[in-house]
Amino acid sequence: MRAVLNRLYSMAERDDKGVMERAYASAAGLSAPPTPAEASALCAEALLPVDPKIGRLLHLLVRTLRPRNPVEFGASYGASAIQIAAALRDNGSGHLTTSELDGGKVRKTRENLAEAGLADLVTVLEGDARDTLGALTEPVDFILLDGWKELYLPVLKVLEPLMAPGAVIVSDNLSMLPADYLERIRDGRLGYVSLDLPLGDGVEVTTWTGIRDE
């Protein structure tokens, strides 16, 4: 597991800056903001792993909370999925479902999970998370949101009916998140309790109490 993560972080440090600079330049030439599919294509070669400290946070939270049905939006190359799945393995229970739009990244995630010895603990769904995660039926008790930022709120709304009381949501890239998403997860009337943490470029950790006061 450590060898796979070290390789992914080394590749990201070497390649991601150039890939993202080209992606931003291409997006600037579009007549409208890129759609999720267009953004996914522009960033297809970027690994975009979670910050190592956030990876450790994910592992710590899963070990502590012992979720049975964690869900991830935005697998990329699988760095965060490896951290979560390793914690599930150490817990002795639980199965991660992760979603990724880009088919090439889906293949890489599956390969990396297999190399890390964790493939049996993760289901990797290919496609738009609003559809793939929307088809889930089991209660969800842990959520990592780390995909296209404009989809955080739509994906959260898809998962809300499945969230068990006490479910924890980790929202990465806090500095980039839309205001309407942050307003929702910080709204106590909707049953949310939330805290921002200064890890990476910011991360929000939220719990849903299951008690709404609308």
UniProtKB/TrEMBL annotation:
Name of the top EC class for this enzyme: transferase
EC number: 2.1.1.-
InterPro entries, per the entry: SAM-dependent_MTases_sf (IPR029063), SAM_O-MeTrfase (IPR002935)
Biological process, per Gene Ontology: methylation
Pfam families on file: Methyltransf_24
MF (Gene Ontology): methyltransferase activity
Keyword S-adenosyl-L-methionine: yes
Keywords of this entry: Methyltransferase, Plasmid, S-adenosyl-L-methionine, Transferase
Domain of life: Bacteria
SUPFAM superfamilies (alphabetical): S-adenosyl-L-methionine-dependent methyltransferases
Protein's UniProt keywords contain Methyltransferase: yes
Protein name: Class I SAM-dependent methyltransferase
